[in-house]
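Exercise 7. Given the encoded structure of a 412-residue chain, write a plausible sequence.
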């Protein structure tokens, strides 16, 4: 079974693309989804967050929510808003956010490769979130939320991408957040073969974002196999993906705020922190400039923290991560946060919001201390995945985010 393959995508006709394009289902609240979809009957949020079309207070995991999603999905197809391509193609998807540009390949990625670790993961998943994605895939009989993959860039792929993106895109939409989304269709059989061969020659792919979506796709495939559904190369043996080269990826920090100081005064807390870090008072907000450096806002002032060298493990790919160093030397021993995945005293703030958002959280009384982080490097993510290990929760924040609705993978 190939690592990736082209597929006959279900996508909006060009004149509807701007109306259909929506943010990923998991980066907006229900209220935000309702607001964004208001007056936009073809917004893909009606498919990905169908609870917005049901009474407020409806359980988002209730069966009627998934049925409503299928009804809305079928309605877009029946109205001709979404149409399926006549044969399998690859698609090139470009995101432009400010000065940053990245171009990836939209492809069907092999579930078997995911199961054998040729498509490598670096996060644990939560069963409830997996269950939700399984129910959504089964309800639609399609995969609509792409998994964000990356690979070590290859010159052969770069050449094909450059040649095709030199032409005008079939879709070119700027979303309301200012991010530009462009899509090209790769119809040329020679180019399709070249892309397939180049990716087949790659050692592996890495999941950047979308662990729950890929895990859910694998569960759907396993269930259909177990029920005797024929076809080793069936569409459900693959999952929808967008694959970007590593040299174009942008990772922002994933910052932390904690609600209390574990019974300490700010002064005593700072004294305790000095056991594991150099503590330097700062005149203003701190944006870390390198690994091993952190900003801390507490008691109305900023500090620059530098982890002491003896606390940095020499080779462990997980323990050397900044998120691990902060946890092992401060969050756990001083603030008593042993399980950041479940402890409600800690919250995580995407780097896209900036360090000013951290200060506001503390000044408002919503948190007692905030930490600004240096972004995790993609090579560190790959090293963790290569070792078969997992990263601590909320280690990476990728920007820009993939849009929903531009290409879907039908399973039947």
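Solution.
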């Amino acid at each position: 079974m190939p690592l990736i393959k082209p597929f006959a995508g279900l996508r909006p006709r060009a004149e509807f693309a701007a109306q259909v394009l929506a943010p990923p289902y998991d980066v907006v609240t229900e209220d935000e989804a309702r607001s964004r979809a208001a007056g936009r009957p073809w917004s893909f949020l009606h498919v990905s967050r169908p609870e917005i079309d049901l009474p407020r207070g409806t359980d988002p995991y209730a069966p009627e929510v998934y049925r409503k999603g299928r009804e809305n999905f079928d309605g877009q197809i029946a109205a001709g808003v979404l149409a399926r391509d006549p044969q399998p193609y690859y698609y090139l998807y470009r995101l432009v956010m400010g000065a940053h540009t990245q171009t990836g390949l939209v492809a069907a990625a092999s579930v078997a490769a995911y199961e054998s670790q040729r498509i490598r993961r670096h996060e644990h998943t939560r069963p409830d979130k997996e269950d939700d994605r399984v129910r959504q895939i089964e309800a639609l009989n399609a995969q609509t939320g792409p998994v964000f993959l990356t690979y070590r860039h290859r010159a052969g792929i770069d050449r094909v991408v450059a040649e095709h993106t030199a032409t005008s895109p079939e879709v070119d939409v700027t979303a309301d957040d200012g991010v530009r989304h462009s899509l090209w269709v790769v119809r040329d059989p020679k180019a399709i073969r070249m892309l397939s061969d180049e990716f087949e020659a790659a050692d592996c792919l890495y999941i950047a974002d979308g662990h729950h979506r890929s895990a859910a796709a694998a569960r759907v495939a396993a269930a259909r196999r177990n029920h005797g559904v024929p076809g080793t190369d069936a569409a459900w043996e693959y999952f929808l993906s967008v694959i970007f080269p590593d040299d174009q990826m942008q990772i922002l920090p994933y910052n932390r705020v904690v609600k209390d100081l574990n019974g300490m005064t700010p002064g005593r807390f700072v004294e305790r922190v000095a056991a594991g870090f150099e503590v330097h008072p700062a005149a203003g907000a701190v944006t870390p400039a390198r690994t091993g450096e952190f900003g801390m806002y507490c008691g109305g002032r900023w500090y620059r923290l530098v982890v002491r060298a003896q606390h940095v493990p020499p080779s462990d790919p997980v323990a050397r991560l900044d998120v691990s160093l902060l946890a092992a030397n401060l969050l756990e021993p001083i603030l008593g946060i042993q399980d950041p995945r479940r402890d409600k005293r800690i919250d995580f703030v995407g780097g896209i919001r900036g360090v000013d958002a951290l200060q506001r959280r503390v000044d408002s009384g919503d948190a007692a201390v905030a930490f600004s982080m240096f972004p995790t490097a993609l090579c560190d993510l790959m090293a963790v995945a290569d070792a078969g290990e997992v990263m601590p929760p909320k280690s990476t924040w990728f920007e820009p985010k993939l849009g929903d609705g531009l290409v879907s993978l039908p399973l039947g």
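Remark. The CA atoms of residues 235 and 411 lie 5 Å apart. Students should compare their own answers with the one above.
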